[in-house]
Amino acid sequence: QGGCQGSGRNTFSEDESNVLRCYVCGGDMKYLGDHELDEPDVPFELFSNFLCSDCGAWQLVFHPNVEGDN
Fold it and tell me: What local confidence, expressed as pLDDT, does residue 2 receive?
């Protein structure tokens, strides 16, 4: 995607506060699902997977373990 210019941060769209915007091109990020991590020494319990519908960029959001776990 040679012409993409990243903003350096993720944003939500101005008209729909629940739509995550792509940090590469500003397009809508499509939620693809959550995935549990079953590794004993990893400080995260799961990650959410997003894909930009415009430029194809992927984003993974890692969720920390709940206090008391690992």
Answer: 35
